[in-house]
Amino acid sequence: MKECKIQKILTGRHVMEGAGVKLKRVFGFGEPELTDPFLLFDHFGSDNPDDYLRGFPWHPHRGIETMTYMIHGEVEHGDSLGNRGVIGAGDAQWMTAGSGIIHQEMPLEAEDFLNGFQLWINLPKKDKMCEPKYRDIISDKIPSINEDGTVVKILSGEYKGIKGAAQDISGNPLYIDVSLNAGKEFVIDIDPGYKKFLYLYAGNIDCGPDARNIDTGSMLIFQNGDRLKLKSSESARFIIFAGKPLNEPIAWRGPIVMNTDEELDIAFREYSNGTFIKQMKNQ
């Protein structure tokens, strides 16, 4: 096994999205080749409701999948498939936009603070116009492993032979949430063909062959190798996700990601004239 080296460290910047939500965009600023097959990663959270209550009113998506994962607080959602519900602390939502979905995500006021993440995953050309799907992932349905006090929650992919809660996902990406105890080491082997990422959202860790110290709020992108080795002198929490690059052309405009500008023009034209949502096979 060859330990992965850190290719790049991102810290992101604060942006306003939706109807006026202040969030930290860690990546998604026009470098999709760097993060392929992933497009965007947002960390949203605040103890000030004015930063998030305006939410993300009805808007379209096509050509992507999204994973929303809540650590604290609640988000109410609805979509054109007829799904309605609330994502609470520890819950997740995996949405395949495929040929087209219109949805809204409205954070609910929290007594203390809101904290969560959203990851956009690009769909390959062959699946861009697949049938939309929606999956609620309730916290107590997410498999987890407790290794001497270090807890690994497996949201998608596979870890130590245990499959994640989200199944039938394009490309079978890995997505795990790790709570690392102080003084412990965490080692994971990941397919060398996968692009590997780590987002540290609590504590500090030492990472890489040179044991580089990483601060809270950092996103690591790794190159080469198939093993990540991490340790910390204090408790830490981080998300690891990984996927196989698509190496396909990317045409991206707002909430829609296709392979050509012509396909983008068609998508927005259909959204304007009311033909964006396609008839589902089982209707």
SS-based class: mainly beta
Number of helices: 2
Low-confidence stretches: none
The helix fraction, in percent, is under 10%
What is the count of distinct domains? 1
Largest sheet: 7 strands, antiparallel
- Average predicted local confidence, pLDDT: 94
Examine the secondary-structure arrangement and name the CATH architecture: Sandwich
Sheet with most strands: strand arrangement: 1-22-19-24-17-14-13
Beta-strand content estimate: over 45%
CATH superfamily: Jelly Rolls
Rg on CA atoms, Å:
18 Å
- Give me the count of strands: 26
Account of the 3D structure:
The protein is mainly beta. The protein has one domain: Sandwich (Jelly Rolls), CATH 2.60.120.10. The chain is 6% helix and 51% strand. The chain contains 2 helices and 26 strands. Strands 1-22-19-24-17-14-13 form a 7-stranded antiparallel sheet, with no helix packed on it. A 7-stranded antiparallel sheet has the order 2-3-4-11-6-9-12, with no helix packed on it. Strands 5-10-7-8 form a 4-stranded antiparallel sheet, with no helix packed on it. A hairpin with a 4-residue loop joins strand 7 and strand 8. The longest helix is centred in the C-terminal third of the chain and has 13 residues. The radius of gyration is 18 Å and the shape is globular. The termini are far apart.
